Amino acid sequence: MGDLPTPSAPAKNSLLRGKPAEATKSQRAFLTAVSLVLVISALLRFHDLGGESLDFDELSSWIQARDSLVHLIKSTAEDNTPPLHNLVLFATIKLFGNSEWSLRLPSAIFGVANIVALYWLGTMTVGRTAGLIGAVLLAFSPFHVWFSQEARTYSLLALAATLYAATCFYYLRAPSVLRGAWVLLTGLALVYSHIYGILDWIAIAGAFAVFVLPATSPRFRTMLIWAASNVLVAAAFAPWAMILAQRVQEVATGGFWIARPTVAVVRHELSVVVGGKLLGGVIVIGIVLGLVGRLRRDVVLLGVWIAAPVALGILASILSTPIFINKYLIGSLPPLLLLSGFGWTRYAKGWQDVMFLTTAVGTTAGLALLLHNPCGRFADCRQGDLEVPAVPLEGPIVGHGYKWDWRGVVSLLEERERPTSCVLVVPDYVWALNYYRRDYSSCWLGAIKVADLPAEIPASILFGVFSLGDLEVQAFAGVDGMAAFVNELRRQGWGDVDRTNFRGHIQVITFIRR
Asked: Is 2 exposed, middle or buried (0-12, 13-18, 19+ CB in 10 A)?
C-alpha cells in the first residue's frame, strides 16, 4: 500500500505544481467550484423545507424534544437512538418554535455542512479533486437530500462520521492536545447520534489505528493523545451504552419490526442508498477506478468505513435482531462518494480537466436526482390494501419517498366534522394528529385491533383514519388491516360512503349510520 503524506505537511497536489499564475488560477477555480456546489446543496436542502407535513418518525422526534430536558432524556431512553439530535431539536424549538420548517432546520444545516466536511476530508486524504467530486455527488444524492429535509438524526449521523474521520487526519498533520480534543468531540457526536454511529466510530478508529497511524512512524506522545481521545469517547458514552444494551435486550426478546435481510432486500436497500441505477452506476464506476492499482492506506480506511457498518449490520440481523435498513447506512455514504470521486480523478490531468470532469459528474448526478423514482423504498408509495389506489404527485419529487400527509388529513376532518361526529384512528396514532390539531370537540378513538372498537360509538358520522404505510411495522405489532375494521363496522350498522386517499399512506373513510 502507498505511503501517506508526512504529518507535518499537507498532501502535495500535482495541480498546484508549475507556474505561480497557473497555481493561482487553479486555486480560484477550486474555490469557485466548491462555493457553487455549496450553494446548490443549500438550495436543494432548504427548498420548501416546511412544505410537507411531518411524517410519523418526525412527529416522534417532536414528541420527545418538545417538553423538558428530563422528559427528553426519559423518552429518548425508551427509544433505540442516542439523544444528541433530540437535544439539538430541543434547543431549536426554544429558539424558533416547532413549525415543520423549524424542526427540519438542523437536518438541513447538517446536510449542507456535510458537503464542506467531505471536501475537507478529501483535501487531507485522497486529494482535493476527489474531495470536490465527492462533494458534488453528495450534494445531488437523493438519499442525502431526503434525510437533510427530515427532522430525524440521520443527517447528523452522516456529518458526525465525516467530521470524526476528518479530525483524525487533521490531528495527524500537526498532533496537539487541542486537535486531540477535536477528535474527542467529533467522536462523541458520532456515537451519540445513532446506534450505527457506534459502528462507524469503531470502523474509522480501527482502520485509522491499524492502517494510517503506524504508517507515519509517529512519536509515542502522538499515539497517546489520539488513543486517549478515543478512550474518553468510549468512557463518556458508557452511561448511554448501558441504556442501549437494555433496549437491545428488550428488542431481542420482543422482536423488531425490521425484516431479516435476504439477498433481494440487501440489494434493494443498497440501491436506495446510492440513489438508483443512474447515480449508482456513476458511483460504482468511480469506485472500481479508485481501487484498481491504487490501493493506499487512506483508501483502505474509506473502504473499511464503507463496508464494516454494512457487514456488521447484516451479520447482527442474521444472528440476532434485524437492524439492517437503508437509512441506518447513511454514515457510510460520504466515504462511498469520496472513494468514487478518487476513482474519477484518473481523468483529471490539470485544473481545466478537473472543472470539466466535475461539471460532467455534476450534470449526470443532477439528472439522476431529477429522474429519481420517489417510490423506490418499500414503505413509500405502497398501496396498502389492494382496494386502495396509490395517488402520485405532480412534478418531480426531490428525495426517495413521500411524506405522510397528516396536514391534509386534519384539514379534511376540520372541513367535514360535526358536533355529532367521531374520529377513529388505526393504528392508534392519535398523538400524531395532535401536532396539527391541538383543540377538537368531537370524540377521538384509537385502535390497534378490531376488538378495541367500543360496543357503541356515540356518533352519527364516523371518520376512519387508516394508516397504510409502514406495513412491516404494523404487521409486527399485530395491527388488524383496514378491511377487517371496515367489515366489522359494516356489521355494526355503519355504511362507508366516501373514501379519500392521501398518497397511498393514509386513507380516510366516512361512515354513516344506516
From this structure: exposed
CA distance 205 to 164: 9
**Closest by CA position to 221, among listed 190, 251, 179:** 179
- Burial label for 303, CB within 10 Å (0-12, 13-18, 19+), is buried
Query: In what helix (H) or strand (E) does residue 426 lie, and over which residues does it extend?
Result: strand 421-426
Is 450 among the domain residues? yes
How many domains, in total, are found in the chain? 2
- The whole-model pTM stands at 0.88
Using omega within 30 degrees of 0 as the cis cutoff, is the peptide bond preceding 458 cis?
A: no
> What is the tens place of the pLDDT at every residue in 45-91?
999 999 888 888 898 899 999 999 999 999 998 888 899 999 999 99
Q: Band of the pLDDT at 20, cuts 50, 70, 90?
A: confident
Is the domain of 278 the same as that of 328?
A: yes
DSSP state of 437: -
pLDDT value at 332 more than 60: yes
Tell me if 392 is assigned to some domain.
Answer: no
414 shares its domain with 360: no
Question: Could you tell me which of 275, 268, 176 has the C-alpha nearest to residue 229?
Answer: 176
